[in-house]
Amino acid sequence: MVLPQLALDSLRDAFGARLLVDEPLARHTSARIGGPADAFIAAESTVDLSTAARIAWEHDLPLFVLGGGSNILISDKGVRGLVIFNKANHIDVGSTTISAESGASTILITRQAAKAGLTGFEWGIGVPGTLGGAVYGNAGAHGGDIETCLLVAEAITPEGPVVYRNADLAFEYRSSILKREKRRAVILGAVLQLAPGNPAEIAAKMEEYNAYRKHTQPPGATIGSTFKNPPGDYAGRLIEAAGLKGSRIGGAEISTIHANFFLNVNDATAADVMALIDLARTEVLRQFGVDLQPEIEPVGEW
Question: Which residues are part of the catalytic machinery?
Fold first, then answer.
């Protein structure tokens, strides 16, 4: 996509040398995969987020907000329009709440909550990514998720600022109305409602979750959980039962530790990963009659 000169001028006026053109997104994703962004800005604050989003909408540029770079598969052809890398990460801890900007790490929020003796977010210790991404995709683990603790989320839209209450986001398993309807909204921050807890019990639970993650999930360049768990079953179990653990296409591999994790083991392309995804879906459907639904989100030009 050739960016309109007026759009580039507006972005340069607002961000100067911080505006990058044709920035390789593989540098910013957990799987180290992804083609270039037409335009790329690292937002250091919610003001940056709002300004960049407003300019994109004013010039009808496609807009994508990149957080921790997990749970997404960016096309080898890259992403058209503007990509905002969200680095707005301020965190405030209250007596029973945590208010954080959308670029704050979910793992750091978990640690801050534990330090304050607040319980209800321990599950976040094993969930990479940012708070904004967690709200957008209703991230969760170990029986907890954002839906169980979100009080409100603040966003900017083309029409102006919006405050979403928990019910407004119509959360479902690993989804929100923002994700399902691809609404034009950029999450700026959120408030989590937690509860006072026993610090020793909180620490023990986090240690247990961390140990479980290290034991069951592979290290290295991975997207995260590839498929949603179907009702009453586990995607990883089905993929393993289909005989696909360790399968490779190009530089991508289905992990030998956990079959719902796909790895970049040798300069994998997005096409390699997508081919493995198609293989897993096809074989699980053929052998077990279960149509696995991706948890990861394809991004960019496919």
Answer: 174, 225, 295
